Amino acid sequence: MTVLRPVLGAEPELFRHTWEGLVNVDQFRWMVRADMLEQLKIAHDELGARHVRAVGMLDDEMRVLTRDPVKWRSGEHVRDVPNWQIDTYITERLTDIGVLPMITTCFMPGALAAGERTTFETKARISLPSDWAAWRRLAGGLVRHLEDHFGAETVRGMYFEIWNEPNLRNGFLEGTQEDFFRLYLETAGAIKDVDPELRVGGPSTARAGWIEEFLEFGRRSGLEPDYMISHVYNEDCSGRPVCPFDGPDSEREPGSPHFARGVVRGVRKVLDSAGFRGEMHWNEWGRTWWPCDGIRESANEAAFIVKTMSEVSQLGDKFAYWCLSDIYDQVGYSGAEFCGNYGLLSLHGLKKPGYHAHSLLGRLGMRRVPVEGCPADGMSGAVCTADSPGDVRLLAYSFDPSPEPDLQASGRMRVEMPSDMRVKRMTVVSDSENNILHDWRQAGSPAYVRRELLEELRAVNELRETRSYCEKRSGDVLTVDFDMPCAGIAMIEFEKM
Question: Which of 16, 40, 75, 374 fits a 20 to 30 Å CA distance from 346?
Fold first, then answer.
């Protein structure tokens, strides 16, 4: 039995909720959909989302530099003045629900692309501009339009991100590091020429690439980034990438459950050593980048989320899990309500275990205290906050790193507290509890969920308390014993008697 003992007499540490505030959506175009906006409102109301990041704000899908119907008769179809109508509509709808977009200056409009390479089902262009002056005018024009339409104060609350994963050469950028640095310089320069107070960042690289080089380049060129951006997935370790890393070599090996932790710690050391004082955003992170991975929709994913945030959430300013919704089309559009896709929410907005992990993390307070008894391997443990003597909250996790975890297994866990405390509420996320996939499977796993069933599933999709625990007092100690899923999470909220 694992026995956890919160050290309530210890000096608490500030515990910032950095997993809140920023969420990801696959592509900007999806936010014309009412259901996507509904999901973003849920994330705003329940998870504290205040910004949303999505690539593709300048794609041809957004009609920024595509055909102009006014010129149709002349045969000169391509417009020479940018069309910001769709981007404006989306941004208006986002501000209506209290969310601001992170402005991602990608991908290249076809009318300006120097090459033919594309990405995603949308065939988004990943080339450099054929005309740098025209590209600067486009970037600057976007800023001017936003400030004219929404006001400078609102736009200064946004973030501007230059491109997406440029170090995945020919995956997301047809160019070298040197090419990207020029793209950053030209784009950031155009944005700052309009409003120097806007926050511009990069390099938005996969697996923390180019961090040191990018910061040095920005400083040398006089355009130091206002904030730094990178991405990390725990399975990035499979190729032993060259990136900042803080941890033993064994944690860089394929299959290590601690790779993401080592990368975040390594980048934090690099930035601190360089004296960087801006924000650090991990605006894509997760256990795996692989599409349609069944474990992603299990309680084991919830455990990984809590494990990772318990370890590194204080080493950055924003952590945005990839991603919010299964309304998604990078390698194909889902044909089933649940197929292991990336979202915390399904196509119809059903909340998966990973969503509940974020909800329970959000219940934690702001003053963290140590927990004794956590196993040394780091696969299970707990976060405990004590914002007052009568408000103690403990979130335990158990993560199984094996390729095929036993999602139904459980073990016994005990939490010891002072005897003048009692359990106010306990919530478990396991293979069967607070797990909408269990209910969906019980209904026959339909790919297309009928409206009547959807309403039934939504009715049981909110976090429900459990009474499956044993609460005893002996002397000055309260013990709470319960079955802890070997792949899952459990939160106990305590109050004074």
Answer: 16
Residue 255: which pLDDT band, with cuts at 50, 70 and 90?
confident
Q: In this predicted model, what pLDDT tens digit does every residue of 121-163 receive, in sequence order?
A: 999 999 999 999 999 999 999 999 999 999 999 999 999 999 9
**pLDDT-based confidence at 26, cuts 50/70/90?**
very high
Q: How far apart are the first and last CA of the chain?
A: 27
Distances (CA, A) of 459 to 82, 349, 432: 45, 12, 16
Closest CA to 310 of 235, 227, 376, 395: 395
pLDDT over 70 percentage in the chain: 99
Residues 6+ apart with CB under 8 A from 27: 54, 55, 56, 59, 61, 120, 122, 329, 330
CB < 8 Å & 24+ apart, contacts of 70-79: 78/111
Identify the pLDDT of residue 70. Answer: 86
Cα gap 167→493, rounded to integer Å: 44
Phi, psi dihedral angles at 382 (to 5 degrees): -160, 155
Question: Does an H or E element contain 215, and which?
Answer: helix 211-221
Q: Please say whether the dihedral angle defined by the alpha carbons of residues 191, 193, 194 and 196, taken in this order, is positive or negative.
A: positive
Q: To which residue do tokens 């906006």 refer?
A: 37
Phi and psi at residue 28, in whole multiples of 5°? -60, -30
Distance, CA of 463 to CA of 260 (rounded, Å)? 28
Q: Alpha-carbon dihedral of residues 434, 437, 442, 444, nearest 10 degrees?
A: 160
- What is the DSSP code string of 295-343? GGGSHHHHHHHHHHHHHHGGGSSEEEES-SBS---SS---SSS-SS-S-
pTM of full prediction above 0.90: yes
Number of alpha carbons in the 13 Å side-chain half-sphere of residue 124: 29
Residue 255: closest CA among 283, 287, 231: 287
- The residue type of 331 is V
Structure tokens at 468: 């499956």
CA distances 97 to 39, 56, 90, Å, are 11, 21, 11
3-state SS, residue 139: helix
DSSP state letters, 420-460: TEEEEEEEEESSSTT-HHHHHHHTT--SS--HHHHHHHHHT
Residues above pLDDT 90, as percent of the chain: 93
Q: Is the pLDDT of residue 239 over 70?
A: no
